[in-house]
Write a structure and sequence with these properties.
The chain is of the alpha/beta class and 361 residues long. It folds into two domains: 222 residues, inorganic pyrophosphatase (n-terminal core); 123 residues, Diaminopimelate Epimerase, Chain A, domain 1, CATH 3.10.310.30. It contains 13 helices and twelve strands. α3 runs parallel beside α6 and α7 runs antiparallel to α8. It binds guanosine-5'-monophosphate and manganese (II) ion. Guanosine-5'-monophosphate binds next to β11 and β12.
Length: 361
């Protein structure tokens, strides 16, 4: 193990002054500090936000695999279960989730001497695990691409200009000299995160760095065409009917610049809803050129409505979600929650719309 740890430090890091391969350069000092912190760490926990998506799962499982290759005892611990559509990702089945194994999750966090927080910027985002992480004596390293982080930590690698945490993690590994520890499986995890956070490279995807990274991942042997199929081609008849029903009933307001999709608890029951069935639904109204703001409200239980928003251009859905729904996210993709029924959430939103109408382009 000592040999591995020595190697870990000796690995050629990217040094300032040398021209980097990537446009995005992580402060080399931070990279070195992460390496030193790892040197002293034995038990490492890696975590991401609640309701983990492709980027959260791709980045955490890839980092876990690399740290294990470096001889560390690393585990991914999440607040709740990964969606079915991402269970194929290598390493996802070994994730310890607090909903399924609460004691194991708490125990791992308490015993960790180092915690990596990937793809979130506020400890509230780990939901039921936030207290455990707050209480833990471990060091904390954050690697993330959300705006304005408010998480306390020892090392913060925050690059909101990078479209996914997975791409940022790759750049970190490259600077650390550790991409050699990526294999085909962990490369597939990184690719999946990059793909899902850019809508299959349809937005936030003009950065040439992305294609240099994809080049490297293909050389590691990933099958990108198959990864697309695994993530997206897993619909069910009832799921497609549910989406059709929701699209048919979508309301267009603000002179056609806003779209509002709602699904009630009863709708979900009638269409035999299962988690993941409405993935991507909120994006569909944006395919209408006039629509700049799309809102999806899903009544997950009689007193909790999950809110998802997407936008085009300058309309800041993160602001709306922050100010009105206790959430946040990115300028064009954000989410939050409403505690109450769907009809209460609806009248609350309708009252709030005038506050934001001036922000349309
Ligand atoms: P989605 O609409 O796919 O659930 O979430 C889109 C993005 O919004 C996520 O990547 C995340 O950054 C953000 N987001 C979603 N839900 C919440 C939430 O409840 N709180 C916060 N702070 N951000 C959220
Ligand atoms: Mn992300």
């Amino acid at each position: 193990e000592n040999c591995l740890t020595l190697q870990l430090l000796k690995m050629n890091s990217y040094t300032p002054g040398r021209r980097s391969r990537f446009n995005t350069v992580i402060d080399p000092d931070l990279v070195e500090r992460v390496k030193h912190m790892l040197l002293c760490a034995r038990n490492v926990v890696i975590t991401c936000h609640v309701s983990p998506d492709g980027d959260a799962l791709g980045s955490t499982t890839a980092l876990c695999s690399v740290l294990r290759a470096l001889g560390k005892d690393a585990t991914v611990v999440t607040a709740d279960c990964p969606p079915k559509s991402l269970q194929f990702l290598p390493g996802v089945r070994e994730i310890i989730t607090a909903t399924r194994s609460p004691e194991r999750a708490q125990d791992l966090i308490a015993k960790a001497d180092l915690v990596f927080c990937l793809d979130f910027n506020d400890l509230k985002r780990v939901d039921r695990l936030s207290e455990a992480f707050e209480k833990a004596a471990s060091r904390r390293i954050v690697i993330d691409h959300h705006l304005a982080p408010i998480i306390s930590c020892d090392i913060l690698i925050s690059h909101p200009e990078v479209s996914s945490t997975s791409a940022l993690l790759y750049i970190f590994l490259w600077q650390a000299g550790w991409t050699r520890y990526l294999n085909r499986s962990s490369a597939a995890c990184i690719y999946t995160g990059m793909m899902t956070d850019t809508g299959n490279f349809a937005y936030n995807s003009n950065d040439p760095d992305l294609y240099l990274i994809i080049h490297d991942l293909l050389r590691k042997g990933i099958d990108k065409d198959n990864l697309y199929k695994l993530v997206h081609n897993n619909a069910s008849q009832s799921g497609i009917r549910l989406n059709g029903y929701a699209q048919y009933r979508t309301e267009y307001m603000c002179g056609g610049r806003m779209a509002l999709i709602t699904l009630s608890y009863d709708d979900l029951r009638d269409f035999d809803y299962s988690k993941g069935d409405t993935e991507g639904l909120v994006n569909i109204p944006l395919t209408i050129p006039e629509v700049q703001w799309s809102v999806f409200m899903r009544e997950d239980s009689k007193d909790l409505v999950k809110i998802s928003m997407r936008s085009k251009g300058v309309f800041p859905v993160n602001l709306v979600c922050e100010e009105k729904f206790g959430g946040g996210g990115h300028i064009n993709a954000a989410g939050g929650e409403f505690h109450g029924s769907l009809s209460e959430a609806l009248s609350y939103l309708l009252k709030a719309i005038p506050d934001y109408e001036t922000l349309f382009e």
